[in-house]
Amino acid sequence: xxxxxxxxxxxxxxxxxxxxxxxxxxxxxxxxxxxxxxxxxxxxxxxxxxxxxxxxxxxxxxxxxxxxxxxxxxxxxxxxxxxxxxxxxxxxxxxxxxxxxxxxxxxxxxxxxxxxxxxxxxxxxxxxxxxxxxxxxxxxxxxxxxxxxxxxxxxxxxxxxxxxxxxxxxxxxxxxxxxxxxxxxxxxxxxxxxxxxxxxxxxxxxxxxxxxxxxxxxxxxxxxxxxxxxxxxxxxxxxxxxxxxxxxxxxxxxxxxxxxxxxxxxxxxxxxxxxxxxxxxxxxxxxxxxxxxxxxxxxxxxxxxxxxxxxxxxxxxxxxxxxxxxxxxxxxxxxxxxxxxxxxxxxxxxxxxxxxxxxxxxxxxxxxxxxxxxxxxxxxxxxxxxxxxxxxxxxxxxxxxxxxxxxxxxxxxxxxxxxxxxxxx
Length: 425
What we know:
By secondary structure, the chain is mainly alpha-helical. It has one domain (31-424): Up-down Bundle (Amino acid/polyamine transporter I), CATH 1.20.1740. It has 20 helices and no strands. α4 (30-38) runs parallel beside α15 (232-264), α5 (41-54) runs antiparallel to α13 and α8 (97-128) crosses α18. It is globular, with a radius of gyration of 22 Å. Residues 1-15 have low confidence and may be disordered.
């Protein structure tokens, strides 16, 4: 009998890898969504400026930023999985209501700024095709409200990923630009460390890599998705893959602009989506250049707007105690969905009414940079105090994280204050 039963484990073993893959796919989402949102409209403009002004000399920096992104966002994975709480809720528990409100107040400022930037990008894409700003903003806001008012986190996540994948159009734009591999290799290693203008733009890139709302969103999304310690490894892979993808997208925008605009008109000052698209058109063809670039910007702006709005809705719920979950029907979580709707509508209305969209982008980057010390400080403190001992931030890795946070905050503030010079003139 035993001989007859022995072959069964062999026939049952092949499905094991398939079940592991299914498990990974079930966990994947929060990290990829937040990273796609990180490549928002402001980041696209910054990457475009980098390529125009400095060719491929800032390309290596985009790859160096991958581990920085991962180090910071991986802490939100730990906190979300091993505490089961969102970022604002943990701050309230560990440091009190006052600091929780300070944190969520800073988040509110960052989210409002982000929405102005993202909706300005959406309006810019509409204007490229002759669509009035009011109509494109109305359609964008309406679709964002429809997506989230479903009472399902997984549905929102899938839609956000699908919209974010439009950013892959930037890879097509970079390919169509026909960059020279020899020029990329030569310029990427030729870094003008002593040039102040170069350092300004490098600092702006670093300062734009971490947004306050990214931290709130990913930790709250993991808690809302109810990921447990057994999902920790897969959630880290989700974050790592997202970090690589988002920086490759940034690199694609930089390469496209360097190979076209930067090669012909290196002194061009491009500070809006429309200006970059118009400058790319002669090189990529009017229909291809406009379509591909427009799709990328639309994906970047829409996914970032959804993520930022949800981050504030979650953060407010964690601090005030109102129901805050995408798994709840809108009638059961009225405040949560109400805050989200208010964010979306306020962002759309302000961009419709405010004519100077360039000035909005400048202000947003400065605000994000100034908030970095507060946001990263709370994140590290929570990782040291509130996690189980075996997963707590400690030892040499704690020192690495602190150094990364200090450098990122310092360079972010430095770059943010100089963005006025780069984009505002």
